[in-house]
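Could you help me review a protein record that somebody else here produced? This is what I was given.
***
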Amino acid sequence: MATQYEPGIYKTTKYLPGHEAEVGPEQLILIRTDGEFAPASVLLPVRNEHNQWHFRMPGIKIPPTSLNWRDTLQTLPREGFYRLTREFRFGDGGVWPENSLVQLGYNQRAEPILFIAQRRTPLVSNDLHFSDKGVKVDLEQTEELVAPLFCYQEPAKQQS
C-alpha cells in the first residue's frame, strides 16, 4: 500500500531521499496532493509577502521509495490569523494582552513567528497593520498560545 500524505505545511527533520540537495532537515515545506501534484509533491518556499509564504511550482514529486519519510515530518499550524489565549510575555519586558489578534507565520527554517495587529496613528483607513517584524516562539508554545480565527478574504478581482 502506498504511503498517504496529508496536504499542509510541515517542518522537515530528514533529507528527502533522492532529493537531498533540495530538501533537507529544518526546512519549511508545503505538501500538495491535488491534481498534478498527486500522489504527493513537496513545494519549497520562494517568497514571503505579508508574512505568508508563496511556494515554488511545480514542486518535487515524492518518490514512492521514500517509504517512511512522511513519518519524519512535523505538522505545523496553518499560517494565518489567531487570537492569544493568554497574555504573552517575551524579550526584555514585551507583553501582548490575552485575546490580542495575531498573525502566525514562519521563517524558512519553519520556526513560528507571531505578528501583532496594530492600528496606526493617524488612522487613515479602517485597516489593521501587521509589521514584517515579529516575535519567534517555540512550536509547542504556539500550539497552546493561540486559537484560530476566521478572517474573510475578498475574492481576487477579475482582470478585464
About this structure: The domain at 80-148 is CATH 2.30.30 (SH3 type barrels.). The chain has a mean pLDDT of 92. The chain has two domains: 8-75, 80-148.
